[in-house]
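Team,

Forwarding the record for the chain on the shared tracking sheet. I've put the sequence and predicted structure together so nobody has to dig through attachments.
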Amino acid sequence: MSAEAIRAAGPSDLERFLPRPVDGGRVLLGITGAPGAGKSALARALVDAEPGRRGYVPMDGFHFADQELVRQGLRDRKGAPETFDAYGYADLLARLRRRPAHTVYAPAFERDLEQPLANALPVPPGLPLLITEGNYLLLDAPGWREVHAQLSEVWFVDVDPSLRVQRLIDRHVRFGKSEDAARAWVEQVDEPNARLIDATRAAADRVIDLTAFAVPGAD
């Protein structure tokens, strides 16, 4: 049975659906969906709604560096499932879920460089809710199954397809591609990934419609 779709115009619409920690534990909420659906915008908005109590740990920090993508012959598929260190991501989530008494440092992804940055995101021990977002949290494949196993809930975000595609084109142009190159990349790389991700929707705990979500800069 598929999850009921929840329409959200802002983070306040979703507060009552957030998973709650029990007995001083920590919960990990995963947010997934196709490129351009608004995953990172939603995650940041939820974290900003209660600073000091929530943390943000994106999947994109586990991109392979370009030199490794070139070595594996994957540079032209950057963003596909096999271009991430899924097992490393799962290991970090498992460590964070245990809520150690010290700060844990997670990697980030620098879009200006288009490269991952090690130890860029501090996750202090006092955060009871961590939100992670990425394309492949529900993918039934080695490494990604281990990721899913660490998450308390996974939300699948949805958005009007034409809006999502235009966001992707605009984002690629903003980070240096020509409009023609951006459209070609969306057609040849982003959209095949989007179809793969959409096939995982039925495994989500909730589906969130972000078409009217009032946060700029959606990713």
